[in-house]
Amino acid sequence: MLRTTTLAGIAALICGAAAQAHVVFSRTDARPGGYYAGALRVSHGCDGSPTTAVTVTIPEGVAVAKPQPKPGWSVRIERAPLASPVPGEGGRMLTERVAAITWSGRLPEDEFDEFGLMLKLPDRAGPLYFPVVQTCEQGRTRWTDVPAPGQAWHDVPHPAPVLELGTGEGPSGTAHH
Fold first, then answer.
1. What's the fold here for domain 23-175?
2. Mean pLDDT over all residues of the chain?
């Protein structure tokens, strides 16, 4: 019995470690139309090579996207024009949106880190995917796979980080602005 329990425990640790090997949001639930303050968690490099950049693509419909600065890392924001202006923070009209954010620095393979974001989310329920490209000293991993309808997130090889926009009831990763 002890051997069976030990083997089951080892299997659970291995499966748990594999499940945590993706780039994920630190909190995955958020309120549609609300503000979200959270972080992308990077738990490893690329096959033993340190991470040197993390680029997240901001999906259309996200009205505001702001990176949190990280000591020792530089931040680059890419913008794209909007088809028509939308209301932004402080009542000003926005004519462009944040399309991608890149943090550049160095994260050793045997350490993890989080890359903070504040987002104004679209006013709709359901999953919202944020494709990430993790660049390393040697290699690159694209966490960009989006599951097909009805397919589980963990069933794709390199799943994009996802926020679940719910009804706003229960615990939430939102921040009130």
1. Immunoglobulin-like (2.60.40)
2. 85
